[in-house]
Design a protein that fits this description.
The chain has helices at 2-32, 63-71, 93-100, 117-131, 152-161, 180-202, 218-224, 233-245, 265-297, 300-339, 343-378, 387-395, 397-411, 447-451, and strands spanning 50-56, 80-87, 103-107, 138-141, 147-148, 166-173, 214-217, 250-259. It has 474 residues and is of the alpha/beta class. It has a domain at 50-263: Spore Coat Polysaccharide Biosynthesis Protein SpsA, Chain A.
């Protein structure tokens, strides 16, 4: 037993803990540098032409609001078009999106392995290229539940005009005030914006796509088509473009997009479980490739993205190893010390219990609560919920990490599959004031502050010429 104990102690102390320290250490550095200011892009000299793409599967509850909100942007209407791919829908998503003003294509594919947003986007870009070759200068991808600030496209145009070929905006929540689960989930993205994205932008380095909204140059689609087909297509896009094309994904802090956050523990669990396995696989393919390219190109972004992807398998390793290792350590020393009178083992038993208590209290509970409170304080102007209502949410932030860790660990051993997640409609986020034309929601400073909903009145929009719907296989 002594040899076995020495082996597992060596693994824990000289392999696992250093890896964990590296994975989490970079996050600590970003938090400590919270005062860094993200880059602001100058006003564009040229207004470029955008194609807005939205993959949607059974999104009847939210798709119309999303399309109307985008069409209500302050960007010149003749310079952007909204496309929706109704992917294997069994509801009237296509009809509602078309009525709201989008050009809609319908896709039907019986292969369940292809029931992913990546395959829907691949199909959609093929149709757009067929109809309008070399017409758009850039594309912006949204999810079916997203809402945006009226100047979102303008802010992305500023970045594009400055030479940015891939970008993400500020991921906010349209239902942060709905309940504590939605609040914690929304605060997770707020925290990432403030600490990780801000610092990376400040030093001119790339970030990881995640959350809602992404802009990319049409050159990428012309060269590759849409080649990101995993469940985590946003992270795959980040890594492929960085490794294959030397394109960093930049952060545009003033392009604010609002996402419908899960409002139940079940839906939160399903979200992160679905993401885990493809992210783990990506670490061992694109992640390790990025690690090697760091030494070839000597650019911090490559190592940073490697460490970002490493966070997921390390989380899985922690959730498996820590209970087994410390559980065994407590049981072994407890039995040897308390049952067989081994004084040294009894001392180790109590030392380990005390150590675990300190780690849980300070390195976990206190650390994550302080992160959440700091993010809340720094980003309070962008959180459309009273700060006092968000304080209990910040105090519960560590429990979100427990759900996240469990979901990531179980998901690593499960095949990802599409599952319907409940969407919050405008009526769920009442009070919502819609315009006479059925205008969509976008932030309203007065009402949204109390409800966490995002809303805006929209101007009447001109009719948008619709392309004939095309069903895959016809």
């Amino acid at each position: 037993m002594d040899i076995f104990n020495q082996v597992i102690d060596t693994i824990n102390n000289f392999i696992l803990l250093p890896v964990v320290g590296v994975a989490f250490g970079i996050q600590i550095i970003y938090i400590l540098l919270f005062f860094c200011k993200a880059k602001t892009y100058p006003k564009a000299k040229v207004q470029h032409r955008f194609g807005i793409v939205i993959p949607a599967r059974n999104e009847k509850d939210v798709i119309a609001d999303t399309v109307k909100c985008i069409l209500g942007s302050d960007y010149p209407k003749e310079l952007f078009d909204v496309y929706v791919v109704a992917d294997n829908c069994t509801d009237n998503t296509a009809e509602l999106a078309r009525a709201a003003g989008a050009t809609v294509f319908e896709r039907t594919d019986p292969d369940p392995k292809h029931h992913k947003a990546g395959y829907a986007l691949k199909f959609l870009f093929e149709k757009i290229t067929e109809l309008h070759p070399n017409y758009y200068e850039a594309f912006i991808k949204f999810d079916a539940d997203n809402l945006i600030e009226p100047d979102y496209i303008s802010r992305m145009n500023d970045a594009l005009d400055a030479g940015v070929k891939s970008a993400k905006g500020y991921s906010n929540s349209k239902n942060m005030g709905q309940n504590k689960v939605a609040g914690i989930s929304g605060l997770w993205y707020i925290r990432d914006n403030r600490f990780n994205c801000n610092f990376r932008s400040a030093i001119g380095q790339g970030t990881m796509l995640g959350g809602a909204g992404m802009m990319f140059s049409a050159e990428i689609i012309e060269k590759h088509g849409w080649d990101c087909l995993t469940t985590s297509d946003d992270a795959e896009f980040t890594m492929r473009r960085l490794n294959e094309d030397k394109i960093k994904t930049m952060y545009v802090k003033d392009a604010i997009v609002y996402e419908d956050q899960p409002s139940t523990i079940k839906d939160t669990y399903k979200r992160y479980k679905r993401m885990s396995r493809p992210l783990c696989k990506m670490f061992f393919t694109q992640g390790l490739k990025s690690f090697g390219l760091f030494f070839a190109r000597w650019k911090w972004t490559y190592l940073d993205m490697f460490l970002t992807l490493m966070f997921v398998p390390v989380c899985v390793l922690l959730c498996i190893w820590m209970p087994l290792y410390y559980g065994y350590y407590i049981i072994y020393n407890g039995v040897m010390g308390l049952a067989f009178g081994c004084t040294a083992c009894a001392a180790k038993f109590w030392d380990v219990l005390i150590l675990i208590g300190y780690v849980v209290a300070f390195a976990f509970l206190l650390a994550f609560i302080l992160q959440a409170l700091l993010a809340l304080a720094l980003e309070r102007k962008r959180i459309k919920v009273p700060v006092k209502k968000m304080i209990p949410v910040a105090l519960l932030f560590p429990f979100f990490m427990i759900i996240y860790a469990i979901a990531i660990t179980i998901g690593a051993f499960c095949k990802p599959s599409w599952e319907q997640i409940k969407r919050n409609t405008a009526s769920d986020l009442a009070p919502v004031s819609a315009a006479a034309d059925g205008g969509a929601t976008a932030p309203d400073s007065a009402q949204a502050e109390e409800t966490g909903a995002v809303q805006s009145e929209q101007e009447d929009k001109p009719e948008v010429e619709q392309a004939e719907s095309v069903r895959d296989g016809e």
